[in-house]
Amino acid sequence: MNDNVLVVHGGGPTAVMNASLYGVIREAENYAEIGAVYGAIGGMEGIIKERLLNLSEFEEEKLALLLQTPGSSIGSSRYPVAEEEYERIPAIMEKYGIKYLLPNGGNGTMDTCGKIYHACMKAGYEEIRVVGIPKTIDNDIAITDHTPGFGSAARYLAASVKEVAADVKALPIHVCVIEALGRNAGWITASSALAREKAGDAPHLIYTPERPFHEEEFLKDVEDLYHRLGGVVVVASEGLKGEDGEPIVDPIFKTDRAVYYGDVSAHLANLVVKRLGIKARSEKPGLCGRSSIPWQSPVDREEAQLAGREALRLAIKGRTGVMVGFQREETEDGSYRIHTMEIPIKQVMLLEKTLPETYINDRGNDVTEEFVKWCRPLIGTELPGFLDFKRCWEEQSKT
Predict the structure, then answer these.
(1) In terms of pTM, does the model score above 0.90?
(2) HEC assignment per residue over 237-285
């Protein structure tokens, strides 16, 4: 063994996925026994087909760009690894002198991480350490307080909703329904509440998939708000379901692990037009916010690096079959602080964490202040207020 490191990305990219990779590379420089840090090109398929890139050969100037590069610089995938391919992985690791394997991803990737760990143990390769680096904008990995990727996605949605709210407030003649990512967990949808500066600000209604969606209640709430305000902003999860547990819009595609729903925002906007006779339109940012660098959260970026560094530290200490997690500390002054923890991989494999009941209001059409307090530190600095927008415009117009 040459004590090399291999990082592999899995699932959808984020605005800080590359920051975790950068953290691993930087941490590796602290250990003389480490030969090189490799990246698997194109996710798990990159390991199976032995497409490995030596990242240690790049100059610092190029590597530093990882902190502001969206997506995945080494490529990701949702490649379904077959049983016989898991059995081949330990030998591939040995061939390239890889002692530390660090999968970076969400629920599916942590499942893969656990299976690789078991494959190494079964084949007698106990010296290979497998440590997961959490990543998902959905924030639905179990046990950890939150995951790298979520803070930036939350910041993007809150900022986008804030800008839409300014538009609707300026011309209050319609209802705007914004669809947020998150099929089974409403963390991103809920984060839209951070667009508010004061009571009464948009979004006026927030619907997450943790509660059954009631069409008649929705229409009544919209109608009441429209008559009072003129313009209404609604944020709804792509995974809304009715009382029967079925999606309110028929799925357009299904896989073994996921259901791809139809256009929920368009469906709700059409309901408003047809049932209430009120002008309505839908917006669906979708992938626009998954890897947005302009709205990247600085807190998210720093924590993503920390997760990458800590994963390698744990591996070098001899830990394997675990994932890095975050635990929030209770501070006397109420300030935000976290520390990392070690989570057995079996406790997070394909286990989804949804919004707790205490984060959703009684009627199921908004979030609570408890959620806002939990989420606010993760997006970093406060979003610009309208006066800040005005000042930025004035400064820009002078140039």
Answers:
(1) yes
(2) ECCCECCCCCECCCCCEECCCCEECCCHHHHHHHHHHHHHCCCEEEECC
